[in-house]
Design brief:
Strand content: under 5%
Number of domains: 1
Structural class: mainly alpha
């Protein structure tokens, strides 16, 4: 179907609808109860940390013998 498609990424994508549904339900329940809804922000992730993780993933795929197209990631 897709070149170099990795099956191990599928479970990660499957949780997203549930997380969004829980966030919407929290908002609706707080609104019905007349309570303020204050979601918290996550910590800022430095671009250097993202670049390091990206490079580690690329190197891991290359060690496994997979052909990797290294994309230039702008942060």
């Amino acid at each position: 179907m897709f070149d170099n498609y990795r099956i191990r990424i599928v479970p990660v994508l499957g949780t997203m609808p549930a997380i969004l549904g829980m966030a919407i339900a929290s908002y609706v329940l707080c609104d019905l109860a007349g309570e303020p809804y204050h979601p918290f922000e996550t910590d800022y992730v430095k671009s250097t940390a993202i670049s390091k993780l990206h490079n580690e993933l690329i190197n891991d795929e290359k060690r496994r013998g997979l052909q990797v197209k290294d994309l230039d990631v702008d942060m």
